[in-house]
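<given_protein>
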Amino acid sequence: MIAGAPDPVAGPHGPPPAGVWNIANALTIVRIALVPVFVWLFFLDGTGWRLAAFAVFAVASITDKIDGDIARARGLVTDFGKIADPIADKALTGAALVSLSIMGELWWWVTVVIMVREIGITVLRFVVIRRGVIPASKGGKLKTMLQVIAIGLYILPGPLDYLRWITMGAALVVTVVTGADYLVQAWRLRRGTEDAPSGAS
């Protein structure tokens, strides 16, 4: 290769974009595939089946962090992953919340509030992405952690009512607060791009 010539594999502007078929996206697909498995196990009668449903929910939740870490560390972020990852997250959370409400173990209004926030913010994220990216906040990460813990406690059998209520209450508050914060940031981003000059000076 001639010294100073661009790498034909990497291209003149850096490494080539990651392909769709990579380990991070594979984990996302596995997480989506685990959703119906979780629902099936959840509605089977018996403590053992409920524990199995909890195990599936826990594994699926863990893959959410793993696939994101792998994608960022190895440069495997793809357009498919950007779309599929939030869909997988909402599918798992929504399936668990709706299942709990159907069984009468969680108030429907809690499920509705959380799902309206999650779906609404996901849609809004895709709407404003052409104007800019709103970075993930610590509040958003705390929200996800509290939701996973709270849902997990509700799935687990046993006398955990007070712990469930406290954790779900905290998750609900953080969910609403971070949702409102995202709306404010999206509005500021929209106003900022509208007020910015359209041409170079």
Summary: Confidence is low (pLDDT under 50) at residues 1-12, 197-201. The longest helix spans residues 161-195. The two ends are 42 Å apart (CA to CA).
